Structures are given as structure tokens and as C-alpha cells.
Amino acid sequence: MKTKQRVALVTGANKGIGFEVARQLMRERFHVFLGARDEKAGRAAAEKLNKESGPSASDLVTGRKDQSGSDSLVTFLMIDISKPGSIKRAAEEFGNQSDRLDALVNNAGIALDDDKDALTTTPEIFETTLRTNTLGALLVSQAFVPFLKKSDAPRIVNVSSGGGQLADGADGWAPAYCISKTALNGVTVQLAAALPNLAVNSVCPGWVRTDMGGSNATRSVAEGASGIVWLACEAPQSLTGKFVKDRKVIPW
Ligand SMILES: NC(=O)c1ccc[n+]([C@@H]2O[C@H](COP(=O)([O-])OP(=O)(O)OC[C@H]3O[C@@H](n4cnc5c(N)ncnc54)[C@H](OP(=O)(O)O)[C@@H]3O)[C@@H](O)[C@H]2O)c1
Questions:
Q1: Extended strands (E) in 18-165
Q2: C-alpha dihedral sign at 246, 211, 181, 29
Q3: Could you tell me which of 161, 175, 221, 187 has the C-alpha nearest to residue 24?
Q4: Which residue's C-alpha comes closest to atom 43 of ligand 1?
Q5: Which residues contact 223 (CB under 8 A, 6 or more apart)?
Q6: Which atom of ligand 1 has the smallest separation from the CA of 177?
Q7: CA of 63 to the centre of ligand 1 (A)
Q8: pLDDT in tens, 203-249
Q9: pTM (two decimals)
């Protein structure tokens, strides 16, 4: 695929916030690689979005196409971000289909704490959570940087959480999850320093109604995805190494 259509990869995009980010980027006419660790769920999600991606009524009237002249498209990409071998295979598969990546959204995440606090969390919960939420985002970024470097306006968006915000959020709730997001914010700062020509930011989507956020959460997936999509394609390219919520920089 050698086109000017912008290209995005969203991890953990078979459901929840990631699925909605993929949908909104598709509507922005990105070619979206929909990352998922479960092949059946990932293919079904990509198919659902591709069914939605037909030309809009206004496009039919104006005959509008995207920059490449083709319709937007969503492609499933198998990627388990907790497994280095899976990340490597995903980057190879991606490279067979695209030579460039414009936006990487490290969205995939887990929360395993249940009612555990800092005194009762287990090595298994702690290691598994950090391997996914923190190390996973770092390793995926490393694997896809060669493609991002071919973009005119490359961006990495790390989906973090207010729970990882030392200034306000870390109050003893879900320690492994919150520490993993504090550390993810550290990954953001380090990547931003290592990649001066990329925009690398953390974002808090707010409390969102998903399997993770639960039904009492205050925001819809569309509201939660909106700030992520803004960082992935609209925010100033000069905005980097920051923690962002609702399109505003917030303290770490
Ligand atoms: N919901 C909230 O209120 C909220 C608030 C702040 C931050 N966030 C963050 O937003 C992101 C998305 O959360 P969500 O609410 O949409 O959660 P969700 O509905 O539970 O979705 C999580 C997604 O991540 C995927 N995933 C988990 N581990 C993975 C792995 N090893 N490899 C690849 N994919 C993996 C899941 O895949 P499976 O379906 O295969 O499990 C699923 O697609 C997370 O990083 C979360 O921490 C959420």
C-alpha cells in the first residue's frame, strides 16, 4: 500500500475505547490497522467497521474520496502486546501491507486488582499488569518506530489513566493498575526524549463505560475516544512529552 492515506494502528481495538478510537479514525479517513490478540474478535470488529465505512450520504452527493482516491479501510492485525514474539510478528505483517505509520495508539490495557491494595497485591497481578500496560506499550512503540519515522507527522498516543496521576489520582485504589499507568507516563516522557521528531503523549480518557470502566462510568466510549483521536491526528505536532485530558495538558 503506497498511498497518501494516513495510517493508524490501535492496539486492543476489538472492543471498548480502542474499538471506538478505530471507528473515529476511520471516519477521519485513516486506514486503520485494528489490533487485537483474539483473531475471531479482531476480525469481527474490523468487519463491523468496514461495513460502516461505506461512503456517507454527503460523500455520495459530492463524490468526495480520501486523499488516495480510495475508500477508508480497516484491517485486522493480530497483536498480543504482552508477548514480544507476537509484537515482532505483527510488525512484520504490518510491513507487508504498509511502509508507513502515522499514528500509533497504545490502547490495550488490563486491570486485575479487584479488591487488592498495596499490601495484598500479588507478584502475579503486579507483573502481568505491568507487562501489558507498561512494557507492552514500550515494546510496541519500539517495533513500530521504523514505520513512524516514514511519516510527515508521526504520533504515539499512550492511553493512560488519571489513576496513574501522582498529582491527583493515586489514592490507594487498584495499585498494580495505577502504578502501571504512572510508569506508562514515564515511558511517554522517555520516548518523547528519544524521538524528537515524533509527538508522543499520554492521555486520560476519563471514566468510560466499557467492560473495564463498568456501567456506572460517567463517559460514553465516544466521549472517551475523542481526546485520544485528537492527539492522534489533530493536536499540534509540537505538543509532545505531555499528559493530556480533554485536549488540555494536565500535571503528572
Ligand atoms: N474505561 C475506563 O474508564 C478507562 C479509564 C482510564 C483509562 N482507560 C484505559 O483505556 C484503555 C482501554 O480500556 P477499555 O475501558 O476500553 O477496556 P476494555 O473494554 O477492557 O478493553 C481492553 C482492550 O485491551 C485488550 N487487551 C488486553 N490485554 C491485551 C494484550 N495483552 N494484547 C492485546 N490486547 C489486549 C482487550 O482485548 P481482549 O478483548 O482480548 O481482552 C480489549 O480489546 C486501557 O488502556 C485502559 O487502561 C480506561
A1: 31-36, 73-78, 103-106, 155-159
A2: negative
A3: 221
A4: 12
A5: 206, 208
A6: 47
A7: 37
A8: 999 999 999 999 999 999 999 999 999 999 999 999 999 999 999 99
A9: 0.94
Nearest to 108 by CA among 82, 86, 85: 82
Neighbour tally for 199: CB within 10 Å: 22
Angle of CA points 200, 6, 12, to nearest 5°: 60
Ligand 1: which residue has its CA nearest to atom 25? Answer: 12
CB-based burial, 17-29: b 16+ in 10 Å, e otherwise: bbbbbbbbbbebb
Residues labelled as active-site residues = 177
Best residue among 14, 37, 128, 173 to mutate for probing ligand 1, ranked by most atoms within 8 Å of CB = 37
Please give the distance, rounded to the nearest whole angstrom, from the Cα atom of residue 196 to the centre of ligand 1: 28
Ligand 1 centroid to residue 170 C-alpha, Å: 20
Ligand 1 centroid–CA 14 distance in Å is 9
Atom of ligand 1 nearest to the CA of 133: 45
Per-residue pLDDT tens digits for 82-114: 999 999 999 999 999 999 999 999 999 999 999
Ordered domains of the chain (ranges, CATH): 7-250 (3.40.50.720)
Its sign, for the CA torsion 39, 154, 162, 82, is positive
